[in-house]
Amino acid sequence: MAVAVMEALMIFIVSCLCVFLILHLIKFFNKVWWNPIRIQSAMRAQGMKGPPYRFLHGNTKEIYNMRSEIMSSPMELSHQMLARIQPHVYSWIKLYGMNFLSWYGPQAQLVITEPELIKEVLSNKDGAYPKSVIQNYAEKLLGDGLVLSQGKKWLKMRKLAIHAFHAESLKGTIPAMIVSVETMLDRWRQEGVKEIEVFQEFKVLTSEIISRAAFRSSYLEGKNIFDMLTRMALIVGRNNYKVGISGIKKFFKTRDDIESEKLDRGIRDCMLKVIKRREEVMMGTEPDGFGSDFLGLLLKAYHENDKTKKISIDDLIDECKTFYVAGHETTTSSLTWTLLFLAIHTDWQNRAREEVLQIFGQKNPCPDSIGRLKTMTMIVNESLRLYPPVFNLTREVKREVKLGKLIVPAKMTICLSVLALHNNPQIWGEDAHLFKPERFAGGVAEATKNNATAFLPFGLGPRSCVGLNFALSEIKIALSMILQHYRFTLSPSYVHSPEHILTISPRTHSSSSNGEPMWWTPIRIQSSMKSQGIKGPSYRFLHGNTKEIVSMISKSRSCPKELLHDTFPVIQPHIYSWIKLYGMNFLQWHGPQAQLIITEPGLIKEILNNKDRAYPKAKPPSFLKKLLGDGLAMSEGAKWLKMRKLANHTFHGESLKNMIPAMTASSEIMLERWRHYESKEIDVFLEFKVLTSEIISKTAFGSSYLEGQHIFDMLTRMAHIISGNSYRIRIPGIGFFLKTSDEIEAENLEATIRNSFMKMMKKREQEAMLGDIDGYGNDFFGFLLEAYNDSDKTKKISVDDLIDECKTFFVGGQETTSSSLTWTVLLLAIHTDWQDKARNEVLELFGQQNPSQDSIAKLKIMTMVINESLRLYSPIVAVTRRVEREIKMGKITVPANMEVIISPLAVHQNPEIWGEDVHLFKPERFAEGLAKATNNNIAAFFPFGLGTRNCVGMSFSITETKVALSMILQRYRFTLSPTYAHCPVEVLTMCPQHGVQVILQPYEPKLGRKRHVSGKLDRYGHDFFGQLLKACHDEDKSKKISVDHLIR
Fold this sequence. Notes:
Layout: H1 2-45, H2 60-71, H3 81-85, H4 87-96, E1 100-104, E2 107-112, H5 115-123, H6 137-142, H7 151-164, H8 167-191, H9 198-215, H10 219-238, H11 255-282, H12 294-302, H13 313-344, H14 346-360, H15 367-370, H16 374-386, E3 392-396, E4 401-403, E5 406-408, E6 413-417, H17 418-422, H18 425-428, H19 444-447, H20 468-485, E7 498-500, E8 504-506, H21 516-531, H22 546-558, H23 568-571, H24 573-582, E9 586-590, E10 593-598, H25 601-609, H26 622-628, H27 637-650, H28 653-674, E11 681-683, H29 684-701, H30 705-724, H31 741-770, H32 780-788, H33 799-830, H34 832-846, H35 853-856, H36 860-872, E12 879-882, E13 887-889, E14 892-894, E15 899-902, H37 904-908, H38 911-914, H39 930-933, H40 954-971, E16 972-976, E17 984-987, E18 989-992, E19 997-1002, H41 1024-1032, H42 1043-1047
Parallel strand pairs: 2-6, 10-15
Antiparallel strand pairs: 1-2, 3-6, 4-5, 7-8, 9-10, 11-19, 12-15, 13-14, 16-19, 17-18
């Protein structure tokens, strides 16, 4: 009997256990399978689609994989954050529509991106959408503070927070903000750093401000709290899409579980010490008891006798954690991204600085004037639109409710994607992903077309961020003070890799440890450009395409050349070949530097006109920097404008007219030397190098070629070093430790050139002091010295500026004109019919007299000849610009920091523009002027550049060429020597590698002055200038005058 009872009891217990297990199993399967399938079916019936539910994990594995893949490498410098931060939302919107259903484990999540539905959810008028219940790591980070609490507790805490951050209280926190920013700026000055990591700097700054303003403490006192909260935030971030089985953590804890619990205890202990310290210090010393800051208000509520107002110690700690985190994370990220934008878009940086200086001058910002910062508000709003600190808001459906036309079941989570909203082209336009602060010029209401939910970086409705005004004031004060003291640009070492932790923030790991600039960045850019139809040769690690280019150029130089004028495949064989393979515009690589080759005139015009200031001059390679310094050819901004004005003043019409006597005198000297080569061979390239050096020396520096010969020789040597290193890639920074022979020589040349110019400068200043010249002289060098000694700081230039401009004009005044003159003489030596036409025109206008300014402009045939020569043999074969910020170029979106290479050769020898006879010398193309020759396409012919940065010495060079050619044609016929070897090469300009040899034959005019028996031509004329020239050539030393005296 007893055994039977025991058996029955055992059966009953086992049956109960089985029923219990079956019930729990049914409950479990209901939660993780039947309920999700039922909800998915119900939502689909209402037209709400989404990725299918996967058992247990939902869609978290898919989301995790998408995020892992996209986060595994940096992105191009684009601001399309939705695809980066929420790739699943970005992809599924395209697949399923603006609103869709996804699954966080077995929890249904309705993702909403429609503004009207978002407004309905956040306004929460019927209380159907409370905050979602947050568990695990986020709960440990924020506790049950203002961000996560509900009902009466939230209302109580909200009132406390509003009191802490209302207008008058906010005004009282501004001194703390200013002191904190001053501390940061002092540190920047003391450290004297050239490159600074602003994200880390702003983490310290915002921590300091929240410590001072809300806790009457300092960053150093609270540093351990901030460090622990940051570590906790990292744990939250990396566990966002990990789903665990409910209850299992009671038995099996992960490493993150253990660390988060330890951090939670550590943060609590630190907070209790802060509270205790305030209680001990402040009790009885303040009228309010504990102070008027946020911590003081919390302590007052903690000690309140009225139970309706009293808060617990846990409430106090949770609020402290909330404000430590929120006051630190959101403002840090917002400040960082705003500074990034201003570093890229320096035009907006300048506009913001002008506004700050106009309102504050050099004084610290004041509360009453912060509201007047309209430009800065536009910039901050646009930054918050593209990089919202809070990009996702979640709510819970309290009961079954109708949302729009949709019936939503209770307990569903609603996810509101702020990023999707801020990047919606239907609201913000097709350029939604571009930085355009002008969107907010008429305010937020106008920018959003009065759609309150189109822009919500700080939330919306009663649960919007209580610290909104505090954060904006903090950002504006910090930016204002930075702008007052610094200009800043984006460092080349920056790697764009935004990530989601709590907010959108830049990754802080070092880019040098994973080869981002050398591999991932080029691969990413190449992929992005290919997706837009821009192809090109594949990137090769470290070298890019430089090895291929060098090989092509070497092969081109080694082959004998026919006497053709098809210079494009000779000088730029890589561009010539790759245009055929990849199209008119393509991507190539100079090491890891992306270079977009542009040969379409329409795009060239857009780039060189540079109306929106997106295409500044590219940063020069180190050797070119040594040659030209930061002179007119390389400088930017206000400095370039100042130097351009000086140069314009030097080469304007009247000044140019006064230079013609020096040009004729220099040409006379050369032609006198040529008398010894009559009926012989002469290398005109070498002759013209001396001639142009003489002319620039006399006209711009009041000197002579012989005086400056050593400078020209050194500059020529430097040019050859540049040419030899054009396509050599050096590892950044290695030059500090291992210098090549070229680097050592270039440094020595640079120092010697500088010393030579210093001597010239000292000599001219001494002449000015002795009164030998008027002021510092009326030439370019004199204008530079006058600016150097100017007491007006806005006009004054430094000694480095002066030397850089001298180098620029020594090089520019010699290289371009000597090569242009050489190729023009080559073409006339071959095409003697055009030589005769040009000579007849010269004789008709000048006879045997020297050219005059008024008649030079009448040389129509010579102008045609010169233009055709410049078309076939462009002195400048490549124009380089840098993309300062991401911009739309035609139909292409081009990332910041890419270089744009424009090939005048490709355009000048394009058969679609110039016809199938494009390689032939046909000056008649220009018979009716440039406009007709180019079909009014201004960017089809630009041998001296285009736009505001075209060559300032263009008229000088053309005049110089015409004067020299006219005087040569008056005296000589010339033909090409049989020894001439045709081999154009690029050495700064396109020049003949082996010179240009011609045979000179004296020209015997049929009419005009007769040759004396002595063989000398009476060609000086009987006017005053003619008498001076005659005295200059007189053999009687007592009557002879020098060239310098002639010019004076």
